[in-house]
Design a protein that fits this description.
Layout lengths: L9 E4 L2 E4 L3 E2 L7 E2 L8 E3 L5 E4 L6 H9 L7 H5 L2 E5 L4 H18 L2 E6 L9 E7 L2 H17 L4 H10 L4 E5 L23 H14 L11 H17 L5 H5 L17 H18 L2
Antiparallel strand pairs: 1-2, 1-5, 3-4, 6-8, 7-9, 7-10, 8-9
Length: about 290
């Protein structure tokens, strides 16, 4: 039996959800103390800003958060078989429609990936999608398809325009997790991974950890109700951070309320200018 208790989650055992605290369970025969070997149960993380599509067979969370951050091991899969097509969406409207494309292409092309809110301080932008491939050639084909979708659809016009404003590409191919490369985590550039002097030690340590921990992840098989919850959370976040396009996603504004104010308005022309700019932005992203 492998230890699946390496962080707090909702765990499922015989279709019954259990909140994990200092103990986990129920297993067959009581609870399992943190750190002990226990029965493997299916888990699903419902407090997550990402909607996952076709993500079975990947242990991304445990590879990143446990193997890398706690033991400083870059797993073999990350070194040799993880190429990501990264797309930095510029509004929740773009994020939602890219997610719909990912759902469709996941079925047609067999792509696996995620879309959601990226709140990490060391990544660029609020919204992102990552589509995963084991081979660079496949990732390049996926990149070309995504680039075509972005370049030909009016729904992603804002992303195209912001590439010029930022003077940077917002669709790229990268390898492995950002945390494994970022200086803040003592990361190593991904182009050095495969021939790094620590590879023998990483492989030995990884074998030991694989014998103890299950790499079954919580990213596969998110039910439709959870995707709906996640999309609504995206819209809450958009409202919170001043992105008005959540109204186009929801078809209404459930977060608006009439709040009493007490200032005397000045500069009527300035107020009209702001209203005009907001209207133009909403028109842009709704195309």
């Amino acid at each position: 039996m492998k230890n699946t208790n390496w962080r707090d989650h909702i765990w499922f055992d015989n279709q019954k959800a259990v909140i994990i605290g200092e103990t986990v369970g129920p297993g067959s025969g009581g609870h399992i103390r943190r750190g002990q070997i226990g029965p493997r149960v299916r888990e699903i993380n419902y407090q997550i800003p990402w909607a996952f599509v076709n993500m079975s067979g990947r242990g991304c969370s445990i590879w990143n958060e446990l193997y890398w951050r706690r033991f400083h091991i870059i797993p073999r899969h990350c070194r040799t078989s993880c190429y990501k097509v990264c797309t930095r969406l510029q509004s929740v409207y773009e994020l939602y429609h890219f997610y719909l494309n990912l759902m469709q292409l996941g079925d047609l092309e067999g792509w696996g990936g995620k879309a959601g809110i990226d709140v990490r301080w060391y990544t660029f932008g609020r919204y992102a999608s990552y589509i995963y491939h084991s081979k660079l050639e496949k990732a390049q084909q996926c990149y070309d398809s995504v680039r075509d979708i972005i370049d030909t659809s009016e729904r992603f016009r804002l992303l195209r325009e912001m590439e010029s404003v930022y003077n940077r590409e917002l669709i790229t191919i990268k390898k492995g997790c950002t945390e494994m490369q970022h200086p803040a985590f003592n990361g190593i550039p991904s182009d050095q991974w495969e021939n790094h002097e620590l590879v023998p030690k990483w492989e030995e340590d990884e074998l030991h950890l694989d014998a103890i921990y299950s790499t079954d992840d919580a990213t596969d098989g998110q039910p439709p109700w959870l995707h709906n919850k996640i999309v609504y959370h995206w819209c809450e976040y958009a409202h919170q951070t001043g992105d008005p396009t959540y109204r186009q996603v929801l078809g209404e504004d459930p977060f608006a309320f009439s709040e009493a104010t007490y200032h005397a308005k000045k500069g009527g022309n300035t107020l009209k200018l702001v209203e005009k700019e907001v209207a133009e932005f909403q028109s842009l992203v709704a195309r």
